C-alpha cells in the first residue's frame, strides 16, 4: 500500500500502528479529540509546535510526518477542489490522481496558485480604487476643474454681448482651472504609473512605516541594547521613509518600541515566553506592564523566539487601523475599514475588557487563529480631556500556538472582498460573486 | 422679478459660471460654500430651488438633503444635486433621499438652466 502523502493521514496511520486511541493521543498533545480528528482527516493544517508534540508522542521525527514532495501538492489540489463550484472533484482519489498523473497534477496546482494570486491582485486593486484617499481626492479635483472649464468656455463661446469685466474674469478663471487640471492630471498619471509597476507600492505615511518595519522583520536590535541610540538616528538613511509625515510616525513607533524594550528586556522576556508561553496576560502581569505593551513586544520578537509568526493590528477609536503586522492566512485590508466581526472591534466597544477568541477567515480550508484583544484609553488629555481609545489585537496562527477548542468566530477581511453571503455584520455588497 | 436660487457649492469658478448663466436669465442667485451651516442658510433664505453639491467641506450634500426633506416647512422645495461622482449608486442614493434631480459633473450650462426651469415651473 503506498505511503500517504498527507500529514493527517500519516498521523492516523502511525497512531493505528501503535494501537493508540485517538483520545489518548489528543490528551497527551494537549488538544481535544475532535480537533485531532479534524487533523487526521486533513481538514486542519498542522505545523509548528503541535506537529512536533504529536510526533514526539508517536515516537517519530516531525519530518517523518510531513516529508515528501507530494504533501504540498496534494494540499494545493485539495484547496483547488474545495473552491470548485458545480460538479465536485473526486477528493477521495486525489492521492491516486497525483500518483498516476504527476505532470498534470503539478500543472493543475500551479494554475490554481496562479488564479489565487490574480484574485488577490484584483481584490487589492478594487480595494484601492474604492478606498484610496489620494485617488479619490485627485479624481474629484480633476472633475471639478473640468466642470468649471466646460461651463466657463461655453459662456465665452455662446454669449455674444458679454460684459468686458465678466469676459476678463472668465478668461482668468479658465487660465487658473486649466493649470489646475494639468497639475491634477500629471499627479494622477504619476501615481497610476507608480502603481502599475507595483500595485503594492506605498501610498501613505503609514504604509511607508510598515515597509520600513517589514524590511527589518519588525525587530530592531539597535533598540534592544541597554544604551539604545536615539530613535531618530535609526531613521537617518531609511530609504523606505520618503515623506516627513512617515518619519514622524516612525519616530513615534520607535520611541514606543524603545520604552517597551526597556521595560521588557529581550533576554528576560525570551525566558518569560519559554516559561509562560505566548500568553500576553501572564507576560503583562510578570513585567507589570499593560497587555497592549506585551502584544507589541510579542509582535516584535526576533524570528525563532516564538514557535511561529505573530501578527498584530492596532486601531484608534474610529476603527482606523494604525498598525498592521500581517501573518499568512489572515489578510489585513490596505485601505478602508476591516471586518466588524474582528475581536479588535468587539474590544473597541468594551474598553478595558480583555478578549480571547478563536477566529476563522473566509476561504476554502481556512486556517484558524487564536486572538487576544484589548482596548485602553490613551489618556492623552488626562481625565479632563476627550477620551482617546486605542485597541490592539494579537494574532497567533496554528503553527505558533495550539488553538484551543470552543466556539469559533467566522470573520472576513472587509465586506467589499468577503465571500460570506449571509453575514449579519455585512455593511456593503461584496465584489466576489461566489459565496462560500 | 426673477425667481430665487440658493447655490450650495464650494468651487469658486463653478459658482461664478452658474451664477452668470442663471443671473442672465433673470434669477436671483445666493451662494453658500460651507456644508456645516448650509441647512441653516436654506431655512433663512427660503429659496425657490436649491442647487446642492454632494462633496462639501464639513458636511455632505446627502446629509443636508436629509435635513431639508425632514423639515416640513420646506415641503416641496426642489433640490437639484450636483456631484463629481456620477456612479449609479450615488444617483440611486440621491433619488432615495428625495433629490428632485441628480446631475453628474461635468454638466452643460444648458442642462442646468433647463433643469432649474423645469423644477420650478418657470
TrEMBL record, chain A:
<dbReference type="Pfam" id="PF01381">
    <property type="entry name" value="HTH_3"/>
</dbReference>
<protein>
    <recommendedName>
        <fullName>HTH cro/C1-type domain-containing protein</fullName>
    </recommendedName>
</protein>
<dbReference type="InterPro" id="IPR050807">
    <property type="entry name" value="TransReg_Diox_bact_type"/>
</dbReference>
<dbReference type="GO" id="GO:0005829">
    <property type="term" value="C:cytosol"/>
</dbReference>
<dbReference type="GO" id="GO:0003700">
    <property type="term" value="F:DNA-binding transcription factor activity"/>
</dbReference>
<dbReference type="Pfam" id="PF09856">
    <property type="entry name" value="ScfRs"/>
</dbReference>
<keyword id="KW-0805">Transcription regulation</keyword>
<dbReference type="InterPro" id="IPR001387">
    <property type="entry name" value="Cro/C1-type_HTH"/>
</dbReference>
<feature type="domain" description="HTH cro/C1-type">
    <location>
        <begin position="11"/>
        <end position="65"/>
    </location>
</feature>
<keyword id="KW-0804">Transcription</keyword>
<dbReference type="GO" id="GO:0003677">
    <property type="term" value="F:DNA binding"/>
</dbReference>
<dbReference type="InterPro" id="IPR010982">
    <property type="entry name" value="Lambda_DNA-bd_dom_sf"/>
</dbReference>
<keyword id="KW-0238">DNA-binding</keyword>
<dbReference type="InterPro" id="IPR018653">
    <property type="entry name" value="ScfR_C"/>
</dbReference>
TrEMBL record, chain B:
<dbReference type="InterPro" id="IPR011006">
    <property type="entry name" value="CheY-like_superfamily"/>
</dbReference>
<keyword id="KW-0804">Transcription</keyword>
<protein>
    <submittedName>
        <fullName>Response regulator receiver domain-containing protein</fullName>
    </submittedName>
</protein>
<keyword id="KW-0597">Phosphoprotein</keyword>
<keyword id="KW-0238">DNA-binding</keyword>
<dbReference type="GO" id="GO:0003677">
    <property type="term" value="F:DNA binding"/>
</dbReference>
<keyword id="KW-0902">Two-component regulatory system</keyword>
<dbReference type="GO" id="GO:0000160">
    <property type="term" value="P:phosphorelay signal transduction system"/>
</dbReference>
<feature type="modified residue" description="4-aspartylphosphate">
    <location>
        <position position="53"/>
    </location>
</feature>
<dbReference type="InterPro" id="IPR001789">
    <property type="entry name" value="Sig_transdc_resp-reg_receiver"/>
</dbReference>
<dbReference type="InterPro" id="IPR050595">
    <property type="entry name" value="Bact_response_regulator"/>
</dbReference>
<dbReference type="Pfam" id="PF00072">
    <property type="entry name" value="Response_reg"/>
</dbReference>
<feature type="domain" description="Response regulatory">
    <location>
        <begin position="4"/>
        <end position="120"/>
    </location>
</feature>
<keyword id="KW-0805">Transcription regulation</keyword>
Amino acid at each position: 500500500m503506498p505511503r500517504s502523502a498527507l500529514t493527517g493521514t500519516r498521523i492516523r496511520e502511525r497512531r493505528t500502528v501503535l494501537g493508540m486511541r485517538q483520545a489518548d493521543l489528543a490528551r497527551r498533545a494537549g488538544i481535544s479529540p475532535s480537533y485531532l480528528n479534524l487533523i487526521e482527516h486533513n481538514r486542519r493544517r498542522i505545523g509548528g509546535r503541535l506537529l512536533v508534540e504529536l510526533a514526539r508522542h508517536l515516537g517519530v521525527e516531525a519530518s517523518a510526518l510531513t516529508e515528501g514532495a507530494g504533501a504540498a501538492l496534494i494540499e494545493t489540489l485539495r484547496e483547488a477542489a474545495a473552491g470548485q463550484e458545480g460538479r465536485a472533484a473526486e477528493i477521495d482519489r486525489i492521492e491516486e490522481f497525483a500518483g498516476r498523473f504527476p505532470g498534470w497534477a503539478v500543472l493543475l496546482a500551479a494554475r490554481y496558485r496562479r488564479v489565487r494570486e490574480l484574485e488577490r491582485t484584483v481584490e487589492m486593486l478594487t480595494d484601492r480604487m474604492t478606498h484610496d484617499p489620494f485617488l479619490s481626492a485627485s479624481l474629484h479635483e480633476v472633475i471639478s476643474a473640468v466642470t468649471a472649464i466646460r461651463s466657463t468656455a461655453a459662456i465665452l463661446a455662446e454669449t455674444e454681448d458679454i460684459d468686458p469685466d465678466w469676459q476678463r474674469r472668465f478668461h482668468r478663471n479658465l487660465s487658473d482651472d486649466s493649470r489646475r487640471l494639468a497639475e491634477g492630471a500629471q499627479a494622477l498619471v504619476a501615481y497610476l504609473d507608480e502603481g502599475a509597476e507595483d500595485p503594492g507600492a506605498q501610498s501613505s505615511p503609514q504604509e511607508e512605516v510598515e515597509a520600513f518595519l517589514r524590511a527589518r522583520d519588525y525587530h530592531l536590535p539597535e533598540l534592544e541594547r541597554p544604551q539604545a541610540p536615539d530613535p531618530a538616528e535609526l531613521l537617518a538613511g531609511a530609504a523606505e521613509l520618503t515623506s516627513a509625515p512617515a518619519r514622524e510616525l516612525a519616530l513615534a513607533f520607535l520611541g514606543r518600541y524603545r520604552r517597551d524594550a526597556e521595560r521588557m528586556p529581550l533576554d528576560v522576556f525570551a525566558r518569560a515566553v519559554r516559561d509562560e508561553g505566548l500568553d500576553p496576560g501572564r507576560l503583562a502581569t510578570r513585567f507589570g506592564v499593560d497587555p497592549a505593551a506585551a502584544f507589541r513586544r510579542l509582535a516584535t520578537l526576533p524570528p525563532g523566539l516564538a514557535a511561529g509568526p505573530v501578527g498584530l493590528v492596532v486601531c484608534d477609536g474610529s476603527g482606523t487601523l494604525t498598525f498592521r503586522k500581517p501573518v499568512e492566512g489572515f489578510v489585513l485590508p490596505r485601505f478602508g475599514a476591516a471586518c466588524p466581526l474582528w475581536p479588535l472591534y468587539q474590544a473597541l466597544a468594551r474598553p478595558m475588557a480583555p478578549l480571547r477568541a478563536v477566529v476563522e477567515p473566509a476561504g476554502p480550508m481556512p486556517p484558524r487563529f487564536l486572538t487576544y484583544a484589548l482596548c485602553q484609553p490613551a489618556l492623552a488629555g488626562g481625565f479632563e480631556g476627550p477620551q482617546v481609545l486605542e485597541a490592539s489585537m494579537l494574532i497567533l496562527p496554528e503553527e505558533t500556538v495550539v488553538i484551543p477548542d470552543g466556539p469559533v468566530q467566522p470573520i472576513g477581511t472587509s465586506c467589499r472582498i468577503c465571500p460570506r453571503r449571509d453575514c449579519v455584520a455585512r455593511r456593503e455588497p461584496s465584489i466576489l460573486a461566489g459565496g462560500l | 422679478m426673477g425667481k430665487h436660487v440658493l447655490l450650495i457649492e464650494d468651487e469658486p469658478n463653478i459658482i461664478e459660471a452658474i451664477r452668470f448663466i442663471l443671473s442672465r436669465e433673470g434669477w436671483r442667485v445666493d451662494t453658500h460654500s460651507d456644508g456645516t451651516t448650509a441647512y441653516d442658510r436654506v431655512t433663512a433664505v427660503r429659496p425657490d430651488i436649491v442647487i446642492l453639491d454632494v462633496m462639501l467641506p464639513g458636511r455632505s450634500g446627502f446629509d443636508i438633503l436629509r435635513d431639508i426633506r425632514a423639515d416640513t416647512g420646506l415641503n416641496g422645495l426642489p433640490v437639484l444635486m450636483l456631484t463629481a461622482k456620477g456612479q449609479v449608486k450615488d444617483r440611486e442614493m440621491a433619488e432615495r433621499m428625495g433629490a428632485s434631480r441628480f446631475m453628474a459633473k461635468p454638466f452643460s450650462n444648458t442642462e442646468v438652466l433647463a433643469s432649474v426651469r423645469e423644477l420650478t415651473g418657470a
